[in-house]
Protein: Cupin
Amino acid sequence: MLSRRMFTGCAICAAIGFVADDGSAQTPSGIKRTITARTDGPIEGYETLEVIVDLEPNFVLDWHTHPGTEAGYTLEGDAELRIKGEEPKTMKPGFSWLTASETPHMLKNGSQATKLFVTFTVQKGKPLATSVPAPT
Structure:
């Protein structure tokens, strides 16, 4: 039986393109993603995706990892980013971050809509993200 946390994590992964191959995939309420570019590389076996992510107020993107790096920039809104082994970070317009491959992280949106620009450089053929339990 799926727990609520696991179901939410799976739904979120699909919404941000973790499972979907194109911008037409359905997304759960609370999040919208738009793939603006998808290219092979920078090395064989990897691809780079550029994605605009829109989060509704108070939306939670549960703990997950990526098979490559995630680099992001906050365009609008505010949120809290948690990365395993680091202090929580407050995301406001102009805030940028980099998450190393396979590093658990999560995001809790604030009381306003938030817009992010995210670049994923990940291994081809692997899910863009995998839900993981909260680190201890």
Observations:
- The domain at 4-131 is CATH 2.60.120.10 (Jelly Rolls).
- The two ends are 23 Å apart (CA to CA).
- The CA atoms of residues 15 and 26 lie 7 Å apart.
